[in-house]
Specification:
Blueprint: H1 2-6, H2 21-38, H3 44-54, H4 64-67
Length: 68
């Protein structure tokens, strides 16, 4: 934990498990954002707004490479 703070990061404590906590939370959001755009439910810009207001992070426009 001290090393993480020393390099300017905020540590999150968890048990020993595969994958990083943030990545395991983010991947389902990314997949659903792609599905929403692919199915015409929402435009990438609208997904961006929803994510920014809902979570403060992640832009669907950054995910467009995955949707092609």
């Amino acid at each position: 934990m001290d090393f993480t703070r020393a390099i300017g990061k905020t540590p999150v404590e968890c048990i020993d498990t595969p994958g990083f906590v943030v990545n395991r939370l983010l991947v389902p959001y990314i997949c659903e954002a792609i599905r929403l755009v692919e199915r015409g439910v929402a435009a990438p810009a609208d997904v961006d707004v929803a994510m920014k207001l809902g979570s403060g992070e992640t832009r669907a426009s950054e995910l467009q490479a995955f949707a092609t």
